[in-house]
């Protein structure tokens, strides 16, 4: 299941500001921001059943953030759907069934710096990609629906019948929109899209 967390607007043009104006706005934003940890989010859903994993994703400065909460049994996920509208901090959460599982990650692949953590908020991990699809076609697919793609790595071999890809967008909002592409047909296969826990390194 997924939950989406709404918070205050943050000027998307913050990078174009001069340093003093940016710092002033950031300080004001911090005063208006509720910090929600994964532990606190897991605590909210623990009444529905045993929570085995919980991950908050997305740009911390975005209007919209989301999370994945995994339960030990399916009944817990079903019960959690009833928590839609529950206040978490100052905002109600929306609770929806998830199209993807939380995937384990090799720790050596995890982001090693603040810049790489920011890159992860703009990156999605795609599986079940038709082997006949080219890198250009994958890029065009996502750009036509979600927004500008800044980096893409398409991987595969002769053993597996499908390929995987890491797609990095210019904006974190585009990566969030890309999650809704999970299940859409790309070539002859329904592509699966998940948040990436690893950056696309050069």
TrEMBL record:
Signal peptide: none annotated. The keyword Magnesium does not apply. Residues 36-100, 122-198 form the RRM domain. PROSITE patterns: RRM (PS50102). InterPro entries: CID8-like_RRM2, Nucleotide-bd_a/b_plait_sf, RBD_domain_sf, RRM_dom. SMART domains: RRM. GO terms for molecular function: RNA binding. It holds the Pfam family RRM_1. Residues 1-23 are annotated as: Disordered. Keywords: RNA-binding. This is RRM domain-containing protein. It comes from Salix viminalis (Common osier).
């Amino acid at each position: 299941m997924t939950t989406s967390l709404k918070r205050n607007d943050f000027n998307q043009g913050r990078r174009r500001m001069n340093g003093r104006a940016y710092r002033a706005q950031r300080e004001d934003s911090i005063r208006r921001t509720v910090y929600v940890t994964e532990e606190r989010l897991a605590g909210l859903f623990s009444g529905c059943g045993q929570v085995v994993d919980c991950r908050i994703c997305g740009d911390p400065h975005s209007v919209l953030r989301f999370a994945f909460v995994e339960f030990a049994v399916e009944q817990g996920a079903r019960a959690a759907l009833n928590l839609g509208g529950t206040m978490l901090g100052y905002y109600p959460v929306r609770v929806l069934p998830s199209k993807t599982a939380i995937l384990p990650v090799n720790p050596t692949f995890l982001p090693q710096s603040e810049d790489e953590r920011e890159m992860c908020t703009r990156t999605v991990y795609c599986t079940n990609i038709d082997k006949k699809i080219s890198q250009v076609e994958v890029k065009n697919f996502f750009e036509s629906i979600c927004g500008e793609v800044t980096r893409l790595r398409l991987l595969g071999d002769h053993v597996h019948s499908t390929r995987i890809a890491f797609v990095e967008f210019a904006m974190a909002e585009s990566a969030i929109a890309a999650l809704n592409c999970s299940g859409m047909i790309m070539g002859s296969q329904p592509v699966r899209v998940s948040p990436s826990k690893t950056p696309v390194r050069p």
